[in-house]
């Protein structure tokens, strides 16, 4: 008789997305250097989410067979970061600037590399046609090699303890390394590129659901990368497989200003069978 299989999917649990307490210091590297972390894009409530998730992992340690972590992984030069764009005066856009297809047509914002003009025209036209997230310039975040790219300590510590108990390692899925497309969801980029298979659909998370009896989901942010990942997964799952998904709703929060987007996601997913529970109820 096969034993039930349970996995935990943690989406982008990285310092740049967590509202780290102001006076919190962390020891990094072999030199034991203590530093204070200033997250680039802190999600309100995320630090509390991290501690609740860490407690959940510790409590359910023996019941979790597999842990998968997606990592938002960018370069300074990225289509959703300011250096990629400029106006007629050569100025880069401020964080949270929306760039529409028409803005590019009108020359309000243009790529700093003029050879990419056709690409960004096609890119923004595709986003708008398919009703995906509008192109938004985010604060430069989750740069590969930076502290902001690292998994937050409470979750990292809990995963490490789980690995020691389970005698296995967690699985990492990196996303967002191609600077010419956004990559909110863990399955594929917003605009898959023909010359980069890492931006195209990756069936790994869908297969995870098919091979498990229960998949718990957490991470940041509920309004963006969590929502996008789950939406990409359910497109490839049957109605029965969708019922295997359980979002730990008290361990994930929306980006400030996108609370309604998160509520719409919850309502949409609840209507097709995705479960939403608090860790205290498990």
From TrEMBL:
UniProt entry keywords in alphabetical sequence: Hydrolase
SUPFAM superfamilies per the UniProt record, alphabetical: Isochorismatase-like hydrolases (SSF52499)
Coiled-coil residue spans: none
Protein family per UniProt: Belongs to the isochorismatase family.
The name this protein goes by in its record: Nicotinamidase
Organism field: Photobacterium angustum
Top-level taxonomy: Bacteria, Pseudomonadati, Pseudomonadota, Gammaproteobacteria, Vibrionales
């Amino acid at each position: 008789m096969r034993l039930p299989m349970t996995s935990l999917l943690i989406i982008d649990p990285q310092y740049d997305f967590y509202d780290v307490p102001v006076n919190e210091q962390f020891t990094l590297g072999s030199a034991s250097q203590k530093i204070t972390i200033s997250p680039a894009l802190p999600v309100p409530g995320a630090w509390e989410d991290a501690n609740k998730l860490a407690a959940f992992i510790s409590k359910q340690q023996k019941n979790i067979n597999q842990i998968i972590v997606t990592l938002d992984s960018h370069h300074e030069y990225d289509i959703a970061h300011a250096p990629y764009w400029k106006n007629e005066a050569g100025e880069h856009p401020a964080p949270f600037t929306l760039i529409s297809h028409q803005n590019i047509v009108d020359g309000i914002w243009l790529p700093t590399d003029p050879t990419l003009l056709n690409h960004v025209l096609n890119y923004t036209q595709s986003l708008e046609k398919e009703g995906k997230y509008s192109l938004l310039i985010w604060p430069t975040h989750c740069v590969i090699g930076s502290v902001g790219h690292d998994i937050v300590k409470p979750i990292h510590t809990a995963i490490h303890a789980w690995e020691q108990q389970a005698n296995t390692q967690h699985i990492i899925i990196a996303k967002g390394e191609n600077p010419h497309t956004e990559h909110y969801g863990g399955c594929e980029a917003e605009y898959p590129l023909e010359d980069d298979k890492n931006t195209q659909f990756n069936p790994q998370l869908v297969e995870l659901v098919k091979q498990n009896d229960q998949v718990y989901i957490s991470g940041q942010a509920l309004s963006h990368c969590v929502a996008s990942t789950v939406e990409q997964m359910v497109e490839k799952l049957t109605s029965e497989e969708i019922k295997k998904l359980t979002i730990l709703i008290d361990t994930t929060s929306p980006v400030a200003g996108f609370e309604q987007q998160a509520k719409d996601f919850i309502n949409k997913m609840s209507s097709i069978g995705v479960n939403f529970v608090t860790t205290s109820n498990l």
